[in-house]
Each structure stands twice: as C-alpha cells, then as structure tokens.
Specification:
The protein has a four-stranded mixed beta sheet, with helices on one face. β1, α1 and β2 form a beta-alpha-beta unit. It is globular. It folds into two domains: 72 residues, 3-Layer(aba) Sandwich (Glutaredoxin), CATH 3.40.30; 111 residues, Glutathione S-transferase Yfyf (Class Pi), Chain A, domain 2 (Up-down Bundle), CATH 1.20.1050.10. By secondary structure, the protein is α+β, with helices and mostly antiparallel strands. It starts with a strand and ends in a 7-residue tail after the last helix. The protein has seven helices and four strands, in the order βαβββαααααα.
C-alpha cells in the first residue's frame, strides 16, 4: 500500500498512527497539496490528503474511510468495535475530533494563507471557527471525565483521532493554551504521546 500525505497534516497522522498500531506495512509518499508539483490529484480528484493507494491501484480517500478499511485488514488490536452502541460512540468521538480540526484548519488558513493580504482577512470568520474549537474541547473534556480512554478502558480510534487533533492544536496554535481549562484532555494526550505510534509520527518542527 502507498499512503500519499504530508508530514504535518493531522488527518494523515491519524492514518499513520492507525497503520503503526495495526502493524501494517506501507510506503509513505510525501506530497504538498499547495504545490504545483503535487501528485495527489492523479489519485484523488479532490486533491486532498490522505489518500491510500491499494496494491491493485484503487484509491481510498478521506481519513475516516481509510482508517475503517485499515482496521478490517488485520484482527490485531481492533480500533473500531463491531456494529452497536460502542462503535457509535467511537465514530462520534472521531467525528468530533475531525470537526474540531476542520474548524481549526479553516481559522489558520484564513489567518496565514499567502494568497490574501492582511486587509482581505476576516477576523470574524477566524473567531467563529475558533469558537467551534473551544466548544469541541469543552465537549470532549466533559465526555472524557476521569476515564483512562475516550470509550472506557482500552485504546480505540476515538483516542487516536482526539490525540492527533490535540497535538495539532499545540503544533499550529501554541498560544491557545487549552491545557489549563481541559486537564483531562491534557492527561490523555500526554499518555498517548508516549506510544511509539505517536512518537514516530510527530510533525517536523519549524
């Protein structure tokens, strides 16, 4: 399998962490979707990463679709439960984490995209997106409580999605200081950060 992605995308990192936790072999093709030389469009017409190219050449895209496929490839360390209430909880956590990221990415793009001047940027739009981030963090903190993991006593896709989202906030929004108001989430991230799958997929600094 070949995974097309960037080293800084939290969605790509989610897929890479799942690959590591499942101990699946793959080749990473680093691609910059903002570059004219980007090649991901040949596999994903949306021009987005991550994109997983299977051995037969078929492409799978959107991180949520990819990780569900990967979890089915091996019975080792199941990350998504079978159909039922627990599966619904795990997938809802993933949707919340990804939605938080969607808002944070939009806020960052509005604030930093070089295609706009400072006068063309919209502070109200940025504030609206960061409001979604704040609401997402509050909901996750409440739902996590004092549980060791998002959905109970074992690692699941929910934790991986949340961990990648929180780590990206620290990476791209170091001044957000979310830890002070969300100590349970901080505890979870610190625990996840010690796993080899997270250590080996840290984005490059700078």
């Amino acid at each position: 399998m070949k995974l097309i992605g960037s080293l800084t995308s939290p969605y790509v990192r989610k897929v890479r962490v799942v690959l590591a936790e499942k101990k699946l072999d793959y080749r990473l093709q680093v691609d910059d979707v903002w570059s004219k030389a980007s090649e991901v469009g040949a596999a994903n017409p949306l021009g987005k990463v991550p994109c997983l190219v299977l051995e037969g050449g078929d492409a799978v895209y959107d991180s949520r679709v990819i990780v569900e496929h990967l979890d089915q490839l091996s019975p080792l360390g199941r990350l998504i439960p079978p159909p039922g209430r627990e599966r619904l909880q795990v997938k809802t956590w993933e949707a919340l984490a990804d939605g938080l990221l969607d808002a944070a990415v939009l806020a960052r793009q509005e604030a930093t995209w070089p295609g706009r001047s400072d006068a063309q940027r919209c502070p109200a739009w940025i504030e609206r997106q960061l409001g979604k981030v704040s609401a997402g963090l509050k909901a996750m903190e409440t739902d996590l409580g004092d549980k060791p993991f998002c959905c109970g006593n074992h690692l699941s896709l929910a934790d991986i999605a949340v961990g990648c989202a929180l780590a990206w906030l620290e990476f791209r929004f170091p001044d957000l200081a979310w830890r002070a108001d969300h100590p349970q989430l901080a505890r979870l991230l610190d625990k996840l950060a010690q796993r080899p799958s997270f250590v080996d997929t840290q984005p490059p600094q700078g």
